[in-house]
C-alpha cells in the first residue's frame, strides 16, 4: 500500500546524510510512494536537481529564529496528513519529535548519521537524544552509532533501535573494466569529504610528509569537497611551505563521483569520527582498496586490517600509506575484489530500501 512520506533534513547540501536521504526518497518514489521534502536552510542545494528530476516537491521553511522555525515546521508536519516522516540529523530529528506532542498518527523514523564523541559530553547533543523516546524507530547507519545513542539515552530499548547501512546501487557503483592499477606508475587516492577540521586534512598532510621522497613521487591525492571552515586554508599553507603541491589536487564537491572513483587506485578517508561514510561504501562497491580511520563499523567490514589507522596518530596514517604504496597491481586487485564482495553483502540498494519499507509498514 502506497504511503504518504515526508523526508526532513536541514538542507540539500553535498553531505553524506543528504545523499542518503535523497537517494532513499528517489527509490521510495519509484516504489509508488508519495514523497515530499522539507528543509529549513535555503542554501547549497546540491541535490535539489536530483529531487526535481524525480518530481519530488521540496518545501523550505527558512526561518532564522529557532523557536519560530520549530513552530512553523511543527504546523507544517501536523497538517500534512502524512503516514510516515523520515528525518535525518540531530536538529531535524528533534523538531520532528517535538512535533509529535500531544499525539500523532504518523510513524516517525529518525536517522542518526554521526557517531560524534562529543555526544557524551555536550548537554545539547544529549538532550536531543533523550527525545528519541517519542520516535517510533531510531535508525543509525552503524552499530557504533546506535551504541553511542543508547549509552546517552538508556531509556531507548533495543527493539526501537535499528542499524541499516548506507544504500548503494551496485549496478551503478561497480569496478570499471578498463581500469588498470598504477597507471603511468602513479598511485592516485581519491578523498570525497568536505573541508572541516574533523576530516583531518592536517593530519593527512603530516603523514604524507613522513613518506620518503620516492614514495611521495608516486602519490597523487584528488580531494573533492566544499570548504566549510579554515582547515582548508591552513592545509594549503602547509602544503606550499613543504613544496608538495604536485601531490595534492583540490576540487569542489562534484556529482561526477563515480568516474572519479573508478579511475582511482584507492579511496581514502581520514576523519576523526563519522557515522558511516558514503565514500567508503562506494569505494568498496567500485572494487577499490580503501584506507580509513578506525572509526564507526569500518574495522568490522574491511578485511585488510593494515589499511585501517588511528586518525590521531600521523605515524599510523603514514604507515598505512607506505603499506598501500608497497602493493602491486595483483594485490590491489585482490583487496578490491574482497571489498566488492562485502559491499554486495551489506549495501545492496534493494535490500536497504526493503528494510525501510518494512519499518514503514510495521
From TrEMBL:
<dbReference type="InterPro" id="IPR001296">
    <property type="entry name" value="Glyco_trans_1"/>
</dbReference>
<dbReference type="Pfam" id="PF13439">
    <property type="entry name" value="Glyco_transf_4"/>
</dbReference>
<dbReference type="Pfam" id="PF00534">
    <property type="entry name" value="Glycos_transf_1"/>
</dbReference>
<dbReference type="InterPro" id="IPR028098">
    <property type="entry name" value="Glyco_trans_4-like_N"/>
</dbReference>
<keyword id="KW-0328">Glycosyltransferase</keyword>
<feature type="domain" description="Glycosyl transferase family 1">
    <location>
        <begin position="184"/>
        <end position="340"/>
    </location>
</feature>
<keyword id="KW-0808">Transferase</keyword>
<feature type="domain" description="Glycosyltransferase subfamily 4-like N-terminal">
    <location>
        <begin position="15"/>
        <end position="171"/>
    </location>
</feature>
<dbReference type="GO" id="GO:0016757">
    <property type="term" value="F:glycosyltransferase activity"/>
</dbReference>
<protein>
    <submittedName>
        <fullName>4-N-acetyl-D-galactosaminyltransferase</fullName>
        <ecNumber>2.4.1.292</ecNumber>
    </submittedName>
</protein>
